């Protein structure tokens, strides 16, 4: 605290003002060496938050990882996340080998994969995006695993993801054509979802196959 705020007058003799008010010498010396003194209450708040996070990580790991990937993770790769421990580790080695040449997205993906490896070692795995179950943006717990949201697919943004879910809640999708028109999803994204195995057995269109009846 600057002396003028406490005394109402300007001064440059900060140390003199502090000594005049019987401030301990150790505090005065600390002020001359440290640019910012971390408030004790602020420090306590951080420690309490750390304890809470640690408790969830140990006792409620599914909730912890679902929350982490929803809130903190910045980059995703469906194949690297759903295909298990070895795939994630190999991807990390590739990124690490690039060193300073790794892009920002690759660096963010490396951080994500560190958590993917950790949770796999704890026996927790991902479920791929499911056209009938996935949330727009949140990683959710499903059958003891963590279900990927639509935004985990590269190029599929929040607005489109929310539109997909909103239309699905009105009525389940009956075909890729239905997804395209009611979900307002472009053909490129539909092809990407299909390529990643996110559309299940969803047929191309509404036409009946007479030979299947």
UniProtKB/TrEMBL annotation:
Gene Ontology molecular function, alphabetical: 3'-5' exonuclease activity
Annotated DNA polymerase helix-hairpin-helix motif domain residues: 123-205
Full protein name: DNA polymerase helix-hairpin-helix motif domain-containing protein
Segments traversing the membrane: none
Origin: domain of life: Bacteria
BP GO annotations: DNA replication
InterPro entries: DnaE2/DnaE/PolC, DNAPol_HHH, PolC_middle_finger_sf
Gene3D superfamilies xrefs: 1.10.150.870, PolC, middle finger domain
Organism listed in the record: Anaeroglobus geminatus F0357
SUPFAM superfamilies: AF1531-like
């Amino acid at each position: 605290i600057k002396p003028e705020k406490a005394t109402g007058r300007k001064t440059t003799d900060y140390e003199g003002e502090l000594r005049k008010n019987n401030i301990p010498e150790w505090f005065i010396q600390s002020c001359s060496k440290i640019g910012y003194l971390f408030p004790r209450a602020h420090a306590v708040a951080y420690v309490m938050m750390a304890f809470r996070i640690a408790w969830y990580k140990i006792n409620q790991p599914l909730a912890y990882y679902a929350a982490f990937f929803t809130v903190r993770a910045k980059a995703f790769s469906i194949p690297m996340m759903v295909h298990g421990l070895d795939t994630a580790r190999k991807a990390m080695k590739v990124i690490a080998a690039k060193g300073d040449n790794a892009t920002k997205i690759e660096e963010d993906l490396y951080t994500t994969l560190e958590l993917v490896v950790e949770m796999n070692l704890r026996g927790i795995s991902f479920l791929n995006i499911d056209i009938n179950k996935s949330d727009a943006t949140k990683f959710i717990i499903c059958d003891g695993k963590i279900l990927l949201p639509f935004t985990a697919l590269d190029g599929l943004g929040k607005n489109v993801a929310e539109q997909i879910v909103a239309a699905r809640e009105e009525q389940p999708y009956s075909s890729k054509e239905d997804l395209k028109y009611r979900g307002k999803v472009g053909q490129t994204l539909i092809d990407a979802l299909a390529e990643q195995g996110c559309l299940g057995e969803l047929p191309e269109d509404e036409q009946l196959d007479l030979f299947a009846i």
